[in-house]
Amino acid sequence: MLDPCPDIRALFIEFDRQYFNSTLGSVEVSWSPKMTLCAGVCQYSRGGYCSIRLSQKLLQFRSKKELRETLLHEMIHAFLFVTHQNRDHDAHGPLFREHMERINRLGGYNISVYHYFTDEVEYY
C-alpha cells in the first residue's frame, strides 16, 4: 500500500544533495492539508525565507514518480530564489527550463512547467 504522506523532508534532502549541491538547507518543505488548487507551491518572503508546500489531498494517491516530479519542480523554483534571488519574475523561463531539463536527463524524470492533476482539483 502507498504511504499517503511519505517523508517529504527526507526526499527533499536527498534531492537537494543529488541535484542542487546541498544549497537548499534553509528551505522549509511541508505537506499542506488544505491546499487543493495546485499540487505544489514555492513561496518567498522578506529576509530571504523560502518554503515549499505540497498538496496532501492532490498528491496522496498519486504515484511516487508524480510526487517526486512535483517536489523537484518546486525545488527548482526554490533553487533559483536562493541562488539568484529570482522570485519568478520570469516564471518558467530559460533558467528554470535549463534546470528542469538537466534533472529530467539525469534522473529519468518528466518534470514539466505545469502540474496536471485536474481530476483531483475538480473533486475538491
Largest pleated sheet: 3 strands, mixed
Shape from CA axes?
Answer: globular
Overall SS class = alpha+beta
Record field, number of beta strands:
3
The fraction of residues in strands falls at 5-15%
Structural write-up:
The structure is a single chain. The chain is of the alpha+beta class and 124 residues long. It has a single domain (8-113), classed as Zincin-like (2-Layer Sandwich), CATH 3.30.2010.10. The protein is 46% helix and 15% strand. The protein has a three-stranded mixed beta sheet with strand order 1-3-2. A hairpin with a 3-residue loop joins strand 2 (40-45) and strand 3 (49-55). GO terms for molecular function: metalloendopeptidase activity; polyubiquitin modification-dependent protein binding; single-stranded DNA binding.
Name a few traits of the molecule.
124 residues, alpha+beta, Zincin-like, 3-stranded mixed β-sheet, 46% helix, 15% strand, metalloendopeptidase activity, Spartan
Layout of SSEs?
Layout: H1 8-19, E1 28-32, E2 40-45, E3 49-55, H2 56-59, H3 64-84, H4 94-107, H5 118-123
Parallel strand pairs: 1-3
Antiparallel strand pairs: 2-3
Helix pairs in contact: 1-3, 3-4
